[in-house]
Structure formats: structure tokens, C-alpha cells
């Protein structure tokens, strides 16, 4: 309590009590305010925001492995949002997959997907590491794919991890796909890394101008 | 003001029939809500949740949309809540997996337009066709010129509230 913190060479005007998320009476140094905002012990209606955690662009793709991995994900956010824009890969066909903590055990995952290709609407389910994306949805020539995953409560080790995935891709006005996916991971562990896979690798690796960004939302 | 701010957020540590966002600041252009939901109701099934605005229980709501290969009907002004546009995973579904719901509420603070729209995207499903699933897009309506200052999300029923681990946030976009 003496000085509450930060580098003082004093002066306090009147009584001060330790601040909380509900009240902060007294006179404070700017450094003290910053310390307590960071610690969550300062009254504000702002609980958090959306921050960029990491990003892959053409200069940072991992070669031809077909996998982009975000590791050491901070455990400080309420949820994660992965956004792939201008998605392309070296060859078409196959899906775009998602795994957590590099766990490739198929039975630990589930998905149910509703998607449309051309005039056909399809629904499918499965135990898979794939957040499935139909053929040509990451095109090789003109056109590109948008793909986004919202991953809730990822740092909670007492429950599994659930995500909502949406995507849309088009190629030269001749083919494409749009879809929405329920994606579940039934392991009770915090997600500290995630892998976005361009199918199973092979020749399907990501190419320019694909950008994949990982955002953190809120504060736990 | 930042471009995006969290207004309210949390993860349930006990059951709750509602997730209630109150005293929503009127300083943003639109709102976004994300929440994961599961109940203790038995069965490898899903159920719909309800949404009300500003605590209004009058028949001032409607909903229209589609789920998988079917449609939600539009009954504008005849409903006392926006029903089935959100989804809750029941206890028989895969362990630890929750339904995910997204709601966008544009122009929520406008006091001149007669109807507010709430856009829903919902995903809930299991690993094969023997598990119930529900993926949907829909829009809910609330007939009022009042600014939205409260959004209440209801579980399927008082008997089957949201369980611990259900998580949520409300954000405002500049």
C-alpha cells in the first residue's frame, strides 16, 4: 500500500486506497494508472479490444509444407479470430484444415458443414482434422478465398474448444464455394498453437497473395 | 475510441438462464456478440435460444432465415422474442464442444428507424449424421424506434440453462 507502486519521489494528496476494477479514489501518477489498467484493477468499461497476434504473408510462408502454424498463443484473450484473405495455393482441390496444439488425432475433432458449390448445396459431417473446404475454393489462377474462424474460450483447460468457420471462394466466375462450419475439439486442454493446413500438404501449399492473420479478442 | 472495444465479456462458472448485456453505450456504429453455448439437457441434440431487446416482452419481433435445408418462417410482429436464431449444444453432444453464435447489430443506437435488424450466424453439430446439427443464417427484427441499450440472450428454458464454460463477449465497432 505504501505509495501503491510506480516510481515515486512522492507526493500524495489526501488519502488513497488501492484501486479496483470498480473504483479508484485519490490522486494518481500516470504510471500507477498504467500499471493498474494492465493488471485489471482500474475502473473502465473497456474490457479489452482486438489485437493482432501474428500474421503470415508471402515473405513468411513456411516453404512448401502446406501448413501455417501459430505457436505460443498468449492465454490472455477471451477468443481468437483467424482471418485468411486473398487465399491461394499452388494447386487446387482438397480442403483447408485446422488443428489445435498440433494434435492430428482425427477422432478428437468433429465438424458439420453446410456449403454450396455452383447450384449444389451439400451438408456433411465427420470426425476430421479438416475444417473442410471443397475443391477449387483456394484457386490457382484468378479469384481467391476468404476464410475466417472464430475460436471461443480457447484458453479454458476445463472444456473442449469450439469454433465457427465461414468461407467463400470464387474463380473466374466459373467455380467456387461458400460454406459455414461447426468445428469441435473434444480435448480439455488450452489451445496454445493452431495449424492451418492447405489440405494434407503435397503440392497444395499457400502462395502469394495469401494473408493469414490471427487476432486475440477481449481479456480473460 | 479504439476501432473495436469489448463492452462486456465473461465465461460462466455456474449455470445461468440468461446472458444479459445492459447499459450498452450508445457511442458505437454497430455491435457484435459472440457466445458459445451448451446446456445440461440430455441427448445428442441442439435446441434454439431466444433473444430480446431492451427487456421488451411484447409481440414486436420477427425472424427470417435458413438452416441446413430448411427455412425459418417470417412472422413479423407476432412474436414475443426472436426465437431459434441462436443455438445451444445439449449434453449428449461431443464432450466439451459448444455451439457458436455470432450476432451483428448495425445502427443499434438510431432512434429514427422503425425496425432494428439483428443478423445471426449459428453453428452447432457433431461428427456424423447420428448427431443433431444446426448451421444457420437468419435475421431477427425488433419493431421500435428506440435505441438498443440492452440485449438479453436466453437459453432454451429455465430448466436447461447455459452451463459453466459457456463464454461470451459483446464488442462495439467505431
Description:
The complex is a heterodimer of chains A (220) and B (174). Chain A has 220 residues and is mainly beta. Helix content of chain A is 5%, strand content 39%. Chain A has one helix at residues 30-39; strands at residues 48-56, 67-70, 79-87, 96-100, 109-117, 120-126, 145-152, 161-171, 175-185, 194-198, 211-217. In chain A, the strands form two sheets. Chain A has an eight-stranded antiparallel sheet with strand order 1-11-3-7-8-9-5-6, with no helix packed on it. A three-stranded antiparallel sheet of chain A has the order 2-10-4, with no helix packed on it. The longest helix of chain A is centred in the N-terminal third of the chain and has 10 residues, at 30-39. Residues 132-136 of chain A have low confidence and may be disordered. Chain B is mainly β and 174 residues long. Chain B has one domain: Jelly Rolls, CATH 2.60.120. The radius of gyration of chain B is 16 Å and the shape is globular. The chains are: A mainly beta (220), B mainly beta (174).
N-end to C-end Cα span of chain B: 7 Å
- Quickly count the domains of chain B: 1
Global mean pLDDT of chain B: 90
**Largest interface, counted by CB within 8 Å of the partner chain's CB:** A-B, 46 and 42 residues
Mean pLDDT of chain A: 80
Structural class of chain B: mainly beta
Number of strands of chain A: 11
Kindly give the count of domains of chain A: 2
Task: Give the strand order of the largest sheet of chain B, numbering strands 1, 2, ... along the chain.
Answer: 1-12-3-8-9-10-5-6
The radius of gyration of chain A is: 22 Å
How many strands, what sense, and barrel or not for the largest sheet of chain B?
8 strands, antiparallel
Estimate percent helicity of chain B.
under 10%
- CATH topological fold name of chain B: Jelly Rolls
Order of helices and strands of chain A: HEEEEEEEEEEE
Query: Judging from the principal axes of the Cα atoms, what is the shape of chain B?
Result: globular
